[in-house]
Amino acid sequence: MELATGYYTRRKPWLLGGFDWAAAKIRPIAIRHYGERLADVLAVEARQEFEALIPQLPYIGGSRNPHTPLIVGAAMFLALYRPLKARDRPVQEIGALASEAVETVYGLFPRSLFPLYGRRTFSRHTLRRAHKRALESQQRRYRGDWVYTVVEGDGSAFDWGIDFVECGICKLYHAQGADEFVPYLCQLDFIASAWFGWGLGRTMTLAEGNEKCDFRFTRTKGRIDF
């Protein structure tokens, strides 16, 4: 069993390597928006922010929890947000930059992977695991984790869904004083949905002050088939 103490710091070289890879891929976006000189400064500052965040990230079960990569990804976006916020860039602009970055990174991967992983979302195996993990989340073993229930669909209105009553990203960003940026990360779910064919529908989010995030999934062809 993996130990909570130092989980992220033990993986610091790998985490920084992932950050460097992503930063290199989105550098052209930053240059287009801010010019080469400022883009390079922002990259250095964002990396410093991410490195400082690593030991502060909440342990939620390590590699046994599929939400752990979301915590890491959220920290990367937080590291991008901070140097831009320090320069009084509007949060809407930073959110748009995050969306453009995600679209760019998805576009780097083989397109054949997206329908493969998209179909797995609707498999019986995935649904069984979702039920199991939902029950585990309700034990609230980790304070920084998500808490949710699975909602059965009828195959017409939607195939299946998840109601999140606690969100790990909301908790992390609240602790870091960045609540205003969470709704823009929520919008990234729809970008993923378009690529993977999740047919995501949602009427409310915790980030907007609602009682839950009501994710509803309906199998679609996805962007890969357009």
**Uncertain spans:** none
Sequence of strands across the biggest β-sheet = 1-2-3
The total tally of domains equals 2
Derived from helix and strand composition plus strand pairing, the structural class reads mainly alpha
> How many strand units?
3
Count of helical stretches = 9
Main beta sheet strand tally, sense and closure: 3 strands, antiparallel
- Helix content class: 40-55%
Query: How far apart are the first and last residues' alpha carbons, in Å?
Result: 44 Å
Please tell me what the overall shape is. Answer: globular
Strand content: 5-15%
The helix-strand sequence is HHHHHHEEHHHE
Determine Rg (CA atoms, Å): 18 Å
Mean pLDDT: 94
Please describe what this structure looks like.
The structure is a single chain. It is built from nine helices and three strands. The termini are far apart. The model has no long low-confidence stretch (mean pLDDT 94). Helices cover 53% and strands 8% of the residues. A three-stranded antiparallel sheet has the order 1-2-3. The longest helix is centred in the N-terminal third of the chain and has 23 residues, at 12-34. It has 226 residues and is mostly helical. It has two domains: 1-108, no CATH class; 111-226, no CATH class.
